[in-house]
């Protein structure tokens, strides 16, 4: 963990909500895409990532992180997704692309240094993600941005755009697939 991250964690441990919100804004989008690879439903992925952040905030004064903050958050989301899948009664939720899961598990369980892990998730990845969002077809991008940035549910987006909920789900699925494809080299 870098000195900068130690400073960030120290402030969060003391209840600095502003610093926590900055951490949330920085990591939330990438963590949702990461979680979606496991659960294959973006709303569920967002819920799971939010649960990780809530847990992180509520126990921040007790947490000891030996890796980087980013590695800690990605491992927490990984574990939360696996618990969700294990506890889910829906068989469809248990279908995970094996190649993605294996690659991600290998990445998380491999004893790699924090600097290597950090390199994998650089700001370059964020820039490429933003470019990929801009390159989505117009309707697909609009739906993705409404779900992602305005935090609207699929039914709310469908109502606003006069579309069916299944169309919104399909467009979100296509958007996420295209975005994952564009940043897959980072996973």
Structural class: mainly alpha
Radius of gyration: 17 Å
Shape: globular
Task: Output mean pLDDT.
Answer: 79
**Could you tell me how far the N terminus lies from the C terminus, measured between alpha carbons in angstroms?**
21 Å
| Poorly predicted segments | 109-113
Strand content: under 5%
Task: Provide a compact summary of the structure.
This protein has 187 residues and is an all-alpha fold.
Which properties best describe this structure?
single chain; 187 residues; 74% helix; globular
Account of the protein in words:
The structure is a single chain. The protein has 187 residues and is mainly α. Helix content is 74%, strand content 0%. The protein is built from ten helices and no strands. The chain has helices at 3-13, 17-39, 42-58, 69-87, 98-109, 114-120, 123-134, 138-148, 154-161, 165-182. Helix 3 (42-58) crosses helix 4. 22% of the residues are buried. Mean pLDDT is 79; it is low at 109-113.
Provide the fold topology.
Elements: H1 3-13, H2 17-39, H3 42-58, H4 69-87, H5 98-109, H6 114-120, H7 123-134, H8 138-148, H9 154-161, H10 165-182
Helix pairs in contact: 2-3, 2-4, 3-4, 7-10, 8-10, 9-10
